[in-house]
Amino acid sequence: MSGVGPHLPGVLNSLAPTLDQYGYLAVAGLVLLEDFGIPVPGETVLILGAVYAGAGRLNIILVGLLAFLGAVVGDNIGFAIGRFAGRRLVDRYGRYVLLTPERLDKATAFFERRGASIIIIARFIEGLRQANGIVAGTTEMHWLRFVIFNAIGAALWVAVWASVGYFSGDHITPIYNTAARYSLYLGIAVGVALIILIAYRVHKARAANRSA
Hints:
By secondary structure, this protein is an all-alpha fold. The protein has helices spanning 10-22, 24-34, 42-54, 60-93, 101-122, 128-138, 143-168, 172-211. Helix 5 packs parallel to helix 7. It is elongated, with a radius of gyration of 19 Å.
């Protein structure tokens, strides 16, 4: 880890040997894998790659470009999985997790109305980032629309985290810990908002059925 500050926070420090060995390939590969649902630390390796670039060990332009390409390709693989296998899996097994074809149809309509903003926001939320493409494909969102907004989200995501890593210097530990904490809070807030939205729609549907 020569040339990089010795006090990297836990996860970043544990990824350092991987980045030391594989360099740019680790950045592109882990981001790509994370973005179609495989639980690997893609976002973390992007930040670490940017930290290395700030220390002069990698080129920040290449780190950002490869992370962007990995994110876009990974989400499109997820989209393909959702498009070609997702609906069939829901029809066959969805009832076991309370996801019926009728509920998927409603999710499809919601995604068509709000899909653009969801795709961009989901990029910054753990869990949603990994499922983003699969959900879009399963709900049969138009592919070109998905590609455009996915690319916008990926560009913003790379710009934010590459900048954080590159300019952090000796402050990477408090910055990383604070960002991780608020990312968790944001994920909880979004989850609560989705539960409220679903409850509201269920209540509205039941009220409409009673009046009918």
